[in-house]
Design goal:
51 residues, 2 helices, 33% helix, 2 strands, alpha+beta
Length: 51
């Protein structure tokens, strides 16, 4: 399965990772009223969202 995926996407440039603020804004747009980071280590984050 992975070789097929690699073949299909071989000609596409890699996508840059989306910043944390993008994810938080997307959660707000989806209707979550409380969003934030509950854990962070360097560039890794765990986010929390509540409706």
């Amino acid at each position: 399965m992975l070789p097929e995926r690699e073949r299909r996407f071989a000609d596409r440039p890699p996508q840059p990772p989306a910043p944390l603020e993008f994810h938080l804004a997307a959660l707000r747009t989806a209707g979550f009223t409380e969003v934030g980071t509950v854990w962070q280590y360097l560039d890794d984050h765990v986010v929390f969202a509540r409706r």
